[in-house]
Amino acid sequence: MTLTLYTHPLASFCQKALIAFYENDTPFKAHFLDLGDPTVRAEFNTLWPIGKMPLLLDQARGQQVAESTIIIEYLATYYPGPTRFIPDDAELAWQTRLADRFYDNYVHVPMQKIVVDKLRPEGQGDPYGVGEARATLRTSYDMLESEMGSRFWAMGEAFTLADCAAAPALFYANEVQPFGETHPALAGYFGRLMDRPSFARVLAEAQPYFDMFPG
Questions:
Q1: What is the value of pTM for the model shown?
Q2: Which residues pair with 153 in a beta bridge?
Q3: Residue 124's pLDDT is what?
């Protein structure tokens, strides 16, 4: 098979890339990684010394592609399908990329800060950093609430890169900082993401591993 994705079903940035594969039924091989295994980690680091998932290998083109956003743009360019992740309109294209960065940097990253803090040994937490992360999430929720009152998907009527970013970010963020009762428009958008077949498939694959997520 031409495409191999190094991934883990529970990893949120991997889920972002997986949504794009499933949206267009793009054939690929999923290479499951348990980075808690030193041997697996060492082997993966020979491919990508940064050691972060996901990583895409394209044997047909001889390319190695890191970072979920770049993987999705790569698929959109070289393996396109019915779902167009980047709009053709130049104005909407840069706005879509900005929305992708917003979800990654101001929802995804602060969510991960809170999660990682829960995994730290007792007495080694970072309450100040967690407080900052929660404040960032609250601000992000407020901004998204004002946008999603008039939109079906993140950028309007079409499902895009921004929605791939939003789905796992909001899923896990809602676990650590719920928004359902305080942000109805955002909650409605999140419900539509949950119903999207590509994301529903991602969550079904992750379900056996959810007990690893710190409650």
A1: 0.94
A2: 156
A3: 83
- The amino acid sitting at 146 is S
Could you read off the pLDDT of 79-136 as tens digits, one per residue?
Answer: 999 999 999 999 999 999 999 999 999 999 999 999 999 888 888 888 999 999 999 9
Q: How far apart, in whole angstroms, are the C-alpha atoms of residue 89 and residue 110? A: 31
* CA atoms in the 13 A half-sphere facing the CB of 173: 30
Which segments within the chain are labelled E, that is strand? Answer: 3-7, 29-32, 55-58, 63-66
Confidence of residue 215 (pLDDT cuts 50, 70, 90): low
Count CB neighbours of 80 within 10 A: 13
Q: How far, in Å, CA of 7 to CA of 28, rounded?
A: 12
Phi, psi of 7 (to 5 degrees): -155, 175
- E strands, 93-198, where? none
